[in-house]
């Protein structure tokens, strides 16, 4: 059976339009940081109420979010986190970080050249004043100590949570990635791909360095939490993203996210 040429032309044109439509619907990168202020972010620092940016810990200069302790005095375990204002579930997040300046000498020694990105975190507004860490999963950032020993970055830490690693529920608090060691104050590009409560991927400077799955509430490390929030065994399919402050000055920039929500869920949410 032969089709008229004009029908074939219409079919090809329709196919082309569909392809263009699909291309236009491809999720785009969206910046979470406007380069000017942190008005779209929420501060929570241990020993302080949600929203109190004690010591001007989190500040903006030259389109960089800076974490500093020059107004602290004694660190006093005032671990802090800067949360983006809304939760996410399925996404690809990327940012750049660099360690700078001198470590706060009254902070615990393990915090030297140590920071991180929290994800699937509880809402900071559900944290009591004296809760130290958010119930969350952390993509941990480390730098070399200049001693020639390996110190990978892009690791996984789990305050108040567990993950499934290599097919088994793993209660280890921190699991090292396969990344190389980065010394000094160089910018490092970190990427996090989160597929709800399924697969999680850590990427450092373009290399996949760690994968695991099924983040869920459970385990220690978090203290003075609201028991109604810490429901052990509950799968974490969404939550807040936060930049960490734990005693080491650090800079963050180019914080962008791309929505990876499955099309059927995205359509249902729009209806």
Automatic annotation (TrEMBL):
3-keto-alpha-glucoside-1,2-lyase/3-keto-2-hydroxy-glucal hydratase domain span: 28-258
Stored InterPro entries: AL/BT2_dom
UniProt-listed PROSITE patterns: PROKAR_LIPOPROTEIN (PS51257)
Keyword flag Protease: no
Keywords assigned: Signal
Any one GO molecular-function label of the UniProt entry: hydrolase activity
Signal peptide limits: 1-23
Domain of life (superkingdom): Bacteria
Name of this protein: 3-keto-alpha-glucoside-1,2-lyase/3-keto-2-hydroxy-glucal hydratase domain-containing protein
Organism per entry: Chitinophaga cymbidii
């Amino acid at each position: 059976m032969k089709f008229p040429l004009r029908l074939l032309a219409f079919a090809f044109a329709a196919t082309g339009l569909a392809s263009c439509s699909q291309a236009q619907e491809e999720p785009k990168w969206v910046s979470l940081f406007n380069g000017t202020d942190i008005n779209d972010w929420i501060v929570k620092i241990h020993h302080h109420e949600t929203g109190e940016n004690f010591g001007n810990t989190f500040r903006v200069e030259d389109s960089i979010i800076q974490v500093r302790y020059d107004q602290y005095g004694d660190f006093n375990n005032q671990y802090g986190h800067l949360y983006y204002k809304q939760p996410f579930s399925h996404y690809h997040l990327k940012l750049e970080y660099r360690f700078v300046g001198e470590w706060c000498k009254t902070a615990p020694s393990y915090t030297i050249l140590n920071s991180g990105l929290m994800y699937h975190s509880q809402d900071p507004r559900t944290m009591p004043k004296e809760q130290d860490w958010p119930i969350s999963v952390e993509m941990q950032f480390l730098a070399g100590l200049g001693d020639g020993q390996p110190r990978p970055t892009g690791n996984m830490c789990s305050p108040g949570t567990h993950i499934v690693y290599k097919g088994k529920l793993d209660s280890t608090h921190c699991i090292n990635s396969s990344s190389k060691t980065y010394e000094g104050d160089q910018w490092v590009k970190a990427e996090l791909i989160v597929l709800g409560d399924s697969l999680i991927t850590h990427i450092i400077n373009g290399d996949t360095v760690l994968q695991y799955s099924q983040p869920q509430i459970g385990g220690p490390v978090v203290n003075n939490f609201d028991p109604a929030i810490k429901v052990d065994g509950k799968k974490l399919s969404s939550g807040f993203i936060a930049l960490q402050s734990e005693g080491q000055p650090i800079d963050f920039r180019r914080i962008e996210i791309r929505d990876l929500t499955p099309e059927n869920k995205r359509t249902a949410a729009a209806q």
